[in-house]
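Recall that a protein's primary structure is simply its ordered list of amino acids. Everything else, from secondary elements to tertiary packing, is in principle encoded there. The following example makes that idea concrete.
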Amino acid sequence: MSEDPVDHAVTAPGGVTPGAGSVAPAMSTKPSAPPGGSTPVPHGRDEARPTVGSRRAVATLTVAAAIVLLSDILTKHVAVATLSDRGPVEVIPGLLDLELTRNSGAAFSLAGGATVLLSLVALAVVAVVVFTARRLRSVGWALVLGALLGGAVGNLADRLFRAPGPLRGHVVDFVHLHYWPIFNVADSAIVCGGVLAVILSLRGVGLDGTRYAEHHPPGGGSDHHGR
């Protein structure tokens, strides 16, 4: 008695018997690509890697800070050497004089008598600028931070090394625009940096050089609305 070949046929899951010569599909062990076809990148890897943009921005910051600081130190040295024990030197009649003063306060002779506090604030500004430089990609913001850093260090150097003593030293001021407090190069750099920071903020430029609108396009709400 012959055996029925159907009795020995292999039954696939779900009760379907594959036909003769058919091959069951192999199970793929390759992980499927995420939607969009891109491979996920570990978080923080690209952010920590220096880029051409970041190196250029940091270089710009460094050069700007060095120019401001050296200009401030040099002009103060010349002012002390040439303007001590003499009255105002008229440069532009009715507009600009050179007049040496010693300032115990902040820029433009503000907050006089708070020298120690202002010295600590200047140290904090330096620390914040150095910390922020790690995320810097924008040349514009590099100029801002360079101006602030150079100006802060320039006036801080006076407070650390000039009389009457460390953290209490008086800052050298010598530029006198009429109807405006006497100031120095460091003060000017701080003000220019602040003005540029406001302009960049109003234009929506971030520290990484991108604009706010690029991350939040008009009408770009949640994906589940209007799709």
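The longest helix spans residues 52-83. Residues 43-48, 221-227 have pLDDT under 50 and may be disordered.
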